[in-house]
Structures are given as structure tokens and as C-alpha cells.
């Protein structure tokens, strides 16, 4: 890739500036100052962050770097659940609500910190009694219910390594993950709820364990009506187990480098990778970023819409907020059921003050129109945040005006399953530039580099790379250390997962998307996200995906799939409008040669468009494994 392949739009950058009170009252304060303090003494910076959690035994060194392996907080001993639960119970938060949960049918549950601790301890005792020991893998395959969080924390309490599999995956995906991890126990629910219907999970588990000899028991959280029967010898009831146990369980003393969990990434090619995170570094990284990036305060009601089955749910529904003693709201409710106003109603009803969601959800709300959110008083909101995909400027503006009501900062957080915590963002209180995620957070050294790992000039594009280890980085890929090493060897000793990005003249970074989402047209590299963003900025477009289709002259040409907003109908006239619009926004080289209007786009369950499937369909090829896609 040459440095001229990307360019920042030529117009003067547009910034949104939060009220100065945000910066004054934020945990981070002045970003530049905080960043310089980190650069002056990186180990000292992380030592201070590590002092914000409790250690059973202090560590004797902050970090040891033996390329490409880093060890953090050496010989420190801790348990993350002591920090998520006991510590708060002992320090005046015993009766503070830790979890507010709301089901699809309107049912509600709340757990105070002391109630959550008692449940986690009892379930941890049950796992122990079944013979689950430190280091054993436990697969958790559940819907978004409090029992899922209890199961995760109970594993962490006794040092078992949880492997959460998103409850929307099918038999093959689940089987592959159970076998790769060698899970000893599978914890599931009989059903999950989706738009008023019960989806049976238990039959999926039954099939997925058939050729998984490591599985000794299946624990079923029974919630459907009528109550499902437990058949085989190895099936046990979640609450029967929990209720006969004592409510106190000493946390296992974990070394900082012991594995905390593994989580499989939704790779676009190859088998899924089991990303391993370590106890100490992950606790420090998620505690730090939840506090300083999302600016969580004592009285906040915090809602992150991710499923705990993804890394965002691990770090920013479960561990990060609980490490900070926050009140977490979460729900099984999809954003369109019973209608498109439900999320805004929940924000109003629970007084949510920090709201963290994904661009795909925001674009869906844009598509149905702001009449749904306009109905609700959203004045409790203080901070908005986004993750998962580039937040294109149109989605930024919509989120800012219609949800934040021109008042709340938007924190667009770039990070990955592999990074465990936020890496690049615009800190609360700093000027926001739509389309740009922002700058590396204090603690992170990142840059946009060329193929040889050399920083590109401002205004140019390249690979997003991390130059210094960080505490919550992945430690390896389970059973596949070669794939771990590849993260560090692709770009000459820097970490990359080949996201493409552009470095702005103001130091802000615009993330374009994964390099495999790149189309080369007549020798020019064109990021699919750039073209899609242009299409979405047209008034008629709700969502768009583009792919490369082979062309004898140009190598590739661009084909676009477009979902129109309600009220627009596809016509040839509109097609040429859209092509002209892309030509004017990105340039003639990015102009799609073909546009097809569609009703839906293939997406992963976490909302990422899977262009590979569109491409395969277009070219009449086998789309490969589609078991991980949305219906
Ligand atoms: C946290 C998460 C990681 C990939 C990442 C990038 C994309 C995530 C983004 C973003 C632009 C953001 N991504 N956040 N792109 N702006 N704010 O999503 O983890 O599921 O592992 O995906 O998602 O391409 O490399 P994960």
C-alpha cells in the first residue's frame, strides 16, 4: 500500500465541543496533560492505575516484555470478583443496585451488590462441588439474563476459565467452541426470548455436546413455560444447585498472569480464535477505561447494549462497570420490540445516564426516524458512546442531535476482542470530529503506519498499529500460538489486526475497517467503509454494503447493495443519483458501477456486515460458513 491511497476530506474539519463542565468534572481532566504524564513514565502511569484495585499480594514489577509476550503486574495476586463485589460490599455499596435487568415481557429484576455477591458465591460453590477446578474451562451459552453474569463471575471466583458463546449461535459454532476449549461444563438456559417468541437453546446444546467428550455436565437455567424436563444424567438445574449451597465462598487467589477467560472472535476467515485474557491486566485495563473513558460516576445508571457474549459485554457490561461499583442496567429486549421506542422508554424509565451502543443500532433508528425517540424525555443522559464499527458522520450527527439533544458528548471507542479495553477514542470533554474515532488514550501508544511499520504523514492512510504492550492485551490464541505471533509479525514488531485508518492533521484517527474489507479498483485501494459512508450520507439511504466484483480492465469494480429509508422506492433515477453522490463525496474512482436495492444485509450477530457472503452470492460461489450470521 502506498501512502497516497487514502486522503482526508479536504474541507476544514468540523468539531463539536462539549460544554467545558464536562472536562472540568471528568475523571480524565485535560487529555493532553494526562497523555504526557503517561508518556513521561509509562510504568508509573500503570502502577497508579493498578492501585485503583485491590491486590491480595502486591506485584513486584509492572511489566516485562519478551517479544511478543508481555507479562503484567508480575507475581501480583488478586481475584477480579473480590474487586467487582466484596470490595464494594465492604466499602458502603452493599445495598447499592449492581444490576437492573429487564426482560422482553416487561419483567424486572434487581440485584444489590451484596445480593449479587451471595448469588455468585453460592453458584461458585456449586461448580466446585461438581469438581470444577482452577484452570478448567466452562462454556456459558445463555441469553442476556442475570444468571449469565452470575455464571461468569462464579467461574472467575474459583479460577475456572469461562468461554462465553453468544446465545444466538447455532449447533456448529457452539460445538466447535466447546471442543476447542475442552469445556468441562456447559451452562445454558432452556430458552431465550426474541421479539415475543421463545427460542429453544437446550436442543442446540444437546446436539452440540454429542461429540464433545470433555463435557461432564450441563447446567440448565429453566425459565420457559411449561418448565422443560431434564433428561440425561448429566443435566442439572441452575437454581437447585445454587440454592443448596452456602452464600459465602472464598475467592481463589489468582496470579496476575493466570487466564481469566477465553473468548472466540468472529473471524471472517478460518476457524474462530480463542483469545486468552489474563486476570491482573484485564482487571486493571477495564477498571481504568470504564472509569476514565466512559466517565462512570457514583450516581450514574449505566447501560451498554452489547450482549455479554461479545467482548464489549465482557468488558463493559460485566467486568468494567462492576469493578467501578456502578449501577448497570441491561436487557434482553431488542431495539424494535414491541416497537422502535422501547430503548428510549427504558432510558427514561430507569434514568440511564451513560448509554453505550453500536453504529448498526443507530443507523436502524435513523432509518425508522426520530419520531420514536422524540416522544421520550432523555434528559437523564450525560454521556453517549459507540463501538463495533466506524461511526459514520451521518450516524454521529443523528445520535448527537436526536439522542444527545446537542448536549451529550459521544465517545466513539475503537478497540477489539484482542485488546480487551478501549484503545482509541475521543475522551469526554474533548472536541469531537465526526467520522474520526479520536486519539490513543493515555496508556496506549498507537499510530497509522505503512507496510514497513513506518508512521505515515498526517493526512494519509495505512494500518492501525499499537507500539507498546498494554495490560489487557491478549496473551495468546488458545491452542494456536502461531496465530498469536502473527499479530506482532505482520508489521515488523508492532501489534496490528490490520484495521485500515487515516491519520488526520489534528492527530485524530479515522478507522476505515479491516484490510480484508478493501477493494482495489484500477490500482487504488478503496475502503468499503468509505464508500458505504458516502452512500449512507445520501438522504434516501438507510444502510449500504459494497463489494468488489472482478473487472477485466480495472481489476475490480464496485457493486453496492443499498437499503432505502422508508418512503423511498428504488428507481434508475435514484441509482444514478447515488452514483453521482459517491462520485462527489469520495471521488470518481469509488463510484459503484452497479447498485442493487435490497431489504436486508448479511450481518454477524454483533452487527458487522459480512461482505464475504454478498461477494460469494454475487459471484455464484460457496459463501462458506454462515452459521454465525443473523437470520
Ligand atoms: C470491540 C469490538 C473489532 C473490530 C475492529 C474494527 C471494528 C470496533 C470500532 C471499529 C471503527 C470503532 N471496530 N470499534 N471500527 N470504529 N469505534 O467490536 O471487538 O468484535 O473484536 O471487533 O471492530 O474493525 O478491528 P471485535
Automatic annotation (TrEMBL):
GO MF annotation terms: 3-hydroxypropionyl-CoA synthetase activity; acetate-CoA ligase activity; AMP binding; ATP binding
Nucleotide-binding is among the record's keywords: yes
Domain Acetyl-coenzyme A synthetase N-terminal: 31-84
Residue ranges occupied by any AMP-dependent synthetase/ligase domain in the UniProt entry: 90-470
Pfam family, one: AMP-binding
EC number: 6.2.1.1
UniProt GO BP: acetyl-CoA biosynthetic process from acetate; carbon fixation by 3-hydroxypropionate cycle
NCBIfam families xrefs: Ac_CoA_lig_AcsA, PRK00174.1
Protein name (Swiss-Prot/TrEMBL): Acetate--CoA ligase
